[in-house]
Amino acid sequence: MWVRACLVAVCFMAWLAGLGSAIAAQAVSASEFPIYLYTSPLTDKMLKDSGQSYDLALGRWQRYLRKYGKASREIGRQDLTTGALPPGLLILASAQVLAPDERAAITAFTDRGGSLLATWATGNYDDVGHASGYGFLDTLLKVRVSGPYNSDAELMLMPFGDGPLTWALPAGRRMSIGKRTDQVLRAHADNVAAIFMDWIRSMDDAGGNIAISFHEAPTHRGAYFAFSELAWGYQAPADMTALLDGVVAWLRREPRVFKSAWPNGQVAAHLIEMDTEDKFFTAPRLADELERIGVKGSFYCLTSEALKYPGIVQDLAARGHEVAYHADVHIGFKGENAAEQETRILRMKQQLEGILKDAAHPPTGFRAPTEGYDGTTEVLLRKHGILHHAADPSSTQDRIPFFSMAEPGLGADEALVVLPRTQFDDVNFKRMQYRESRVVETMTHDLDLALRSGALSLLSVHSQNFVDGGLMREPVSRYVDLVARQKGRLWVARGDQIAAWWRLRERVKVRQTKSEKGLRLQVSVRGEDPVDGLTVFAVLPAKNVPPSVEKLSQSAPVFQIRTIDAFRSAIVFDRLVAGEYEYLLQFGGR
Fold this sequence. Notes:
Elements: H1 2-27, E1 35-38, H2 41-49, H3 55-65, E2 72-75, H4 77-81, E3 89-92, H5 100-111, E4 115-119, H6 135-141, E5 143-148, E6 156-159, E7 175-176, E8 185-189, E9 192-197, E10 210-216, E11 221-225, H7 237-251, E12 256-259, E13 268-276, H8 283-292, E14 298-301, H9 303-306, H10 310-318, E15 322-325, H11 338-355, E16 365-367, H12 375-383, E17 388-391, E18 402-403, E19 417-420, H13 426-431, H14 436-453, E20 456-462, H15 473-484, E21 490-492, H16 495-506, E22 508-514, E23 519-525, E24 531-532, E25 535-539, E26 548-551, E27 559-565, E28 568-573, E29 575-576, E30 579-586
């Protein structure tokens, strides 16, 4: 008996071990994975009895799912509860009322390998109208809903860039859901694809601001939207479609490959810079802090002040930090006429280049005082050799660099690169009257969010607040220690390096095509300069099952495969030169 029990146990464990590969193999034919939209009759009745309509929620999905043609269909209660529904993706669109037999049928469906997407208050009521809580969601999707969101702010849904579900959208894009906080719930989960924040991305002390979560069990995949379909439509339709496409593809176990934002398999980037103004002499202190953990930063110098401290400026450059422009005097450029702006730009260049006359390269970065600039400023900066500028948080809806549109006809090789400030700075902290402990807490939160969302993190420090006893002196020292712990995942670089990477990255195009053997990755590279460290992320059809990658031509550049997390692998190319290259990716040993 003991031997038989052991044999049974061994066989069972072997079955479990093979399940991941079996699911991954199934992913190759994911286009055959049907999509079912459940039209919950009990939810429909409850809403009609209260003068509302279930058609509004269903209509959003009906319009979206048209693109899948015959692969998508609506099902009713009988379809669900007979137990004959083949594995596929089941969508529960705010299905607030679920009877016991419906819950059992849904659970059985996932046990058979079906995927599940539930939104908002799905399963919050039973068939006799009693509130049943959100345990059903926790059981199947591992999401813990704590109740209504209760916020007066206009909420933004902000996706995580390069994520397994939301890779098609840039990190942290502001996607408004209006003020429909009655259609939003607070939720907690381990795997997050998007969160809710206010427009300025302030820290939410109440917690539970997850907008989209996901979960993979041994038998099924699931995703949860903490908002109802009534919150759709406030954002750009293309953004919502891209979001839904990524979620549906992941639930159907369709592998995806895409160009990641950052080089060398890093998940986020960080620039720590100083607006070097009054108390210019504190700049070396920040340089010391950065060098203590082996990184460099950028120092945007007010050139009229830099003239008083030429030795410091030269020393910062010699130590490998970026020395760049912060204008001639501390007055913003926005609203000044072109002649006035150009005179100031020429003056600041003359002043700083005079100090750095022995430097190998002239400064190429800029940051406007008070973040005050306009399209004229950007045109003139580029005209006079500036390659990037660090801008305000409202310069873009995203948390990644972008190319200035002040001159729309320019390509990526010529256009000005804009680095948006994505974190609160000491000007914000002083205005909000934060103490040092709150400053550290906020910076820590911003860093964690950047890492989770694949963003550019840009921390700005002002020299006058870095004196002994100044608001930023001790917090920055503690913060730098936190940054050091993330260097395996976080690319810490100067502003000019980040801008240069953004241009190089634009020279590479990545496409995927299906083949009988797996997925073909096509990499196209243009330009004379090589691209080092270009990274392609692969979304896995089953967690912890990385792909095998085969070069389809001997000339294809070498690469390394790294694990990012349970759901993504990274293909990191040492060096790419101009050309067209193809690789074959196979998942689950196929």
